[in-house]
Amino acid sequence: MKMIKVHGSGNDFFILDEKQVDKNLSEEELKELARRVCDRKTGLHGGSDGILYVTSGHDDSVVGKMRVINADGSEASMCGNGIRTVARYLSEQNNLTDFKIETMYADLEVKKAKDFAPKVTAFDAEISPVSFAASDLKMHIGGKEKLFNEVVPELSKTLKFSAVAVPNPHLITFVNHDELMGPELGRIATYLNNGKNPIFPDGVNVSFVEILADNNIFVRTFERGVGFTNACGTAMSASSLIYSLLYASHTDLEDLITVRNPGGMVNTKVHQREDGSYWMSLIGNATFVAKVELSQERALIGDFTDAKWVATTEQAAYENFVGSL
Ligand SMILES: N[C@@H](CCC[C@H](N)C(=O)O)C(=O)O
């Protein structure tokens, strides 16, 4: 089988196109493959945050479909950093620059953006649909229908949280720099992703956000199904939305927002449709790190000894770009 190691802001994945497998994968094998390949200690070349499984779409209105399998084998409805890399993959395969990709809940518009730097290819992805409803978030807080800038005493006595599905679930709080770097994010997110808590029994992506300046924020995320990540695209989009609602006197809809993260940076824009609903543009790198060819049978038992890894020169270019920020 053949895969491509990719990342967006250091949030790394293996793209697996269903056309590149040795033998069709069952649902259980796909999840097992993700658990084996992504493991940071025993996985393929240092593992990854997930697998992006590319298949054909429901009809010709989309160029393909992306499924997101987290490192623990769970499936997510969307991945903002991942969809940019899948957009690049499908763009190069089909010689297109502006098209739609099917995801679990929506067909999303993607387009090529201006390179961030030489050899740092960028794509712009629609992040949508957005919902604040507790039912869409699978959130249970004393019968509340939504959570917007409120203390949740079970989580923290002081931090105020907002929850939004984009459409994967996110819990966001604005913090100072010490809180951003401190232990609370890990403590709260580990609890909320333990599979036993009554608030988010299915887990949630948790982000701490520091405001650096107007339209300039830093987002640190603990992802459901993964743990701490260099960056989470849907989290940065959701954080930009909450920023624009909470700090409306410092930003306007459609403003370009710079979002820094531990793995680099992206730009976002928050838009509102005539019916009042929100959507975001997420613009960032879509880096191809390496092409890899390996035995599918061996990968499924965690044996990567025969893997042929051919690195591109893009990672060095990306590191230069991050160094220049
Ligand atoms: N890294 C992704 C989000 C991946 C899914 C997430 N872990 C979930 O379970 O919702 C992104 O860039 O958005």
TrEMBL record:
What GO cellular component term, any one, is given?
A: cytosol
Q: Which GO terms describe its molecular function?
A: diaminopimelate epimerase activity
> Coiled-coil region(s) at which residues?
none
Q: Which PROSITE patterns match?
A: DAP_EPIMERASE
Q: Which residues take part in binding substrate?
A: 11, 70, 80-81, 168, 205, 223-224, 233-234
Q: What is its EC number?
A: 5.1.1.7
Localization:
Cytoplasm
Which SUPFAM superfamilies does the record associate with it? Diaminopimelate epimerase-like
In which pathway does this enzyme or protein participate? Answer: Amino-acid biosynthesis; L-lysine biosynthesis via DAP pathway; DL-2,6-diaminopimelate from LL-2,6-diaminopimelate: step 1/1
Cite the entry's keywords alphabetically.
Answer: Amino-acid biosynthesis, Cytoplasm, Isomerase, Lysine biosynthesis
Catalysed reactions, as listed in the record: (2S,6S)-2,6-diaminopimelate = meso-2,6-diaminopimelate
At the top of the EC hierarchy, this enzyme's class is isomerase
**Biological process (GO), any one:** lysine biosynthetic process via diaminopimelate
Q: What InterPro entries has UniProt attached to this entry? A: DAP_epimerase_AS, DAP_epimerase_DapF
Q: Which domain of life is it from?
A: Bacteria
Q: Where is this site: Could be important to modulate the pK values of the two catalytic cysteine residues?
A: 170, 223
Keyword Amino-acid biosynthesis found: yes
Q: Which residues carry out catalysis? A: 79, 79 (proton donor), 232 (proton acceptor)
Q: HAMAP family attached here? A: DAP_epimerase
Role? Catalyzes the stereoinversion of LL-2,6-diaminopimelate (L,L-DAP) to meso-diaminopimelate (meso-DAP), a precursor of L-lysine and an essential component of the bacterial peptidoglycan.
Assembly and interaction partners: Homodimer.
Family classification: Belongs to the diaminopimelate epimerase family.
- PANTHER family xref list: DIAMINOPIMELATE EPIMERASE, DIAMINOPIMELATE EPIMERASE, CHLOROPLASTIC
Protein name listed in UniProt: Diaminopimelate epimerase
Write down the species.
Liquorilactobacillus mali KCTC 3596 = DSM 20444
Gene that specifies this protein: dapF
